[in-house]
Amino acid sequence: MRKRPEQTEQTENDLKQAFWKLYAAKPIEQITVSEIAQLAGYNRGTFYLHFQDIYDVLSTIEHDLLQQMSSCVETCMQRLNAGDEPIDCMQGVLDFYTEQREYVVVLLGPHGDPAFTAQLKGLLKPLWLTYVLHKDPKKSEQETDLVLEYTLSGALFMISRWLQNPHGVSPEKLLHLVYHFALQR
């Protein structure tokens, strides 16, 4: 007997949402498959029909977010190549972060997955190097990489903190702060 794709997708979404609710509240090491299944309204066996373990659920969520972010960055780069201003293009990236606030705040926070942060930085590095930092022939490749790491870490931290409490600074002001910070070398 074959399962209906809509039912399979709904079950996976229910399990991912249950996992996320738990992951947003506590470290992954403290989450059990039983908790996820119970919260989603399924049994452990159903969980294992869709995921190998809790790390597989996290990986699936992260993969989906990185795919969406990749598309967002690609759009930004196309706009920059067409002559748009960096701040205007960065608005699309900030919009993505804002739409995905519930995930970004957790993944970039203290209980987040360092591998996700590393993958996100890897995705952003070409954009940042080409349009924000501009390759400096006076800097070695290692110096440039250190500057990229510093500015990307700072920018991601600023955005993450802003998403936790966006009421004190407007999105436009945040973009200018991030851009200004990145250019302070």
Strand content: under 5%
Helix/strand/pairing category = mainly alpha
Task: Indicate the radius of gyration in whole angstroms.
Answer: 19 Å
> What string, H for helix and E for strand, traces the elements in order?
HHHHHHHHH
CATH class of the largest domain: Mainly Alpha
The low-pLDDT segments are none
Mean pLDDT: 87
- Alpha-carbon distance between the two ends: 62 Å
CATH-scheme architecture of the largest domain: Orthogonal Bundle
How would you explain this protein's 3D organization?
The chain is mainly α. The chain is built from nine helices and no strands. Helix 4 runs parallel beside helix 7 and helix 7 packs across helix 8 (141-164). The chain is elongated.
Would you summarize the structure shown here?
The protein is an all-alpha fold. It is built from 9 helices and no strands. It has 2 domains: 47 residues, Orthogonal Bundle (Arc Repressor Mutant, subunit A), CATH 1.10.10.60; 123 residues, Tetracycline Repressor, domain 2 (Orthogonal Bundle), CATH 1.10.357.
What keyword list fits this structure?
Tetracycline Repressor, domain 2; 2 domains; mainly alpha; 185 residues
Helix and strand layout, with pairings?
Layout: H1 5-23, H2 33-40, H3 44-50, H4 54-81, H5 86-99, H6 101-107, H7 114-133, H8 141-164, H9 171-183
Helix pairs in contact: 1-2, 1-4, 4-5, 4-7, 5-9, 7-8, 8-9
